[in-house]
Amino acid sequence: MKLKDDHGVYFQDVGSATCFIIGTDIDGSKRIGGSECRCLDGYFGVDCGIPEAVWFDTYRNKYPETRLRRRKVPRRVINGVTVNHEFAMFEARLHELYPVVDVFILAESNYTAHGDPKEFVFLKKLRRGYMKDFQDKLLYVSLDTFPKTSETSGWVADAYLRYHLGINGLPLLKGLREDDLFVLSDADELPMREVITFLKLYDGYSEPISFALQWNMFGFFWKKSAKDNWSKWVSGAEENPSIVSSVATLGMLKKVLFNNVFFIRTNVFWRYYEVFKRLKKYRDEQGHLVKEWVIGKAGHYAGWHCSWCFSPVDIVLKMDSAQANDEPRWGNMPDKKNLTYIASRIAEGVWFDDKEHFLPVSNTRQKHYAPGYLLQHPALYRSLLYHPSHALNLDQPRAPP
Q1: Which of 88, 89, 269, 300 has its CA 20 to 30 A from that of 189?
Q2: CATH of region 77-304
């Protein structure tokens, strides 16, 4: 698959100002003489190109003293995703990110992380035309082995499919450039289109990049609550973001991370001396901006992380699929796999330890409550979007099932 440059029009001259079209009230800017861009809600900066997740709490405190500059040609973005049975979030991903992601590399194994054989369920559906309107940007990579070491090492079990995705997927892409971006995602993590668009269109930010994602549990109607610690006291946030290391340029992947995309994910790896030497050379001799950057914060998220957002039946599948040395491993506990029990946890917002309680989301109309595509199709995704007691869900089968 050959990558092509994006020749879309993202900016427009309005008088003496150059404005990001999606983030600007163009008519309003013209009415004030075209000397500046009048930003729409959720966008900031001189050209209205900085989305709120990026603005808070990074550029708000630095602007305009930043190195940000518009690119002449947008970066290409590759989104690598490992999957098991997360179809609803996969559908949301393609609808949300298809316009701004150049290639989705989809990696699937016919073994669970526990080592049990299973079908290539995504491949089977794709061959039958599933998401056919998006398949021109899909690159599918299969893994048909399960390393023996994964039976005892959770680290290997967690890393191997991601490693396979990068080492076998990226060489299939032609025309790659070192400033192209690789975005690594678990199937239940979805960055916002606005954030990916910003990363495509601008230079001058550092890498690697983490996303602060809204952390939902069982569905978008529960949020992970913040722990009672110093961080909660300082931030005042009741909810706990999910911070996931996700993004690096292909240059960093090649010159620092040994082309192993899993190393984007782990902070431990940066401590190794050999990596430190490569990183220092990448930064000092080649002039790259190297500093971990977290996009987003509570209330101004960079996307969504919907954990355990399944039906009770599929939650059992997730429990059984977990790696062997997960602690605790719910798949080893028959009482936790009872469907009635799981349904009660979803309804009450309580974790499987029967101790941790999640925060209810009372306002389902709040900004960025859930991915836009899901909200546009409530009948299809109502069981993920709304609490079981919601009017749309009463006396109805699950949707999606």
Answers
A1: 269
A2: 3.90.550
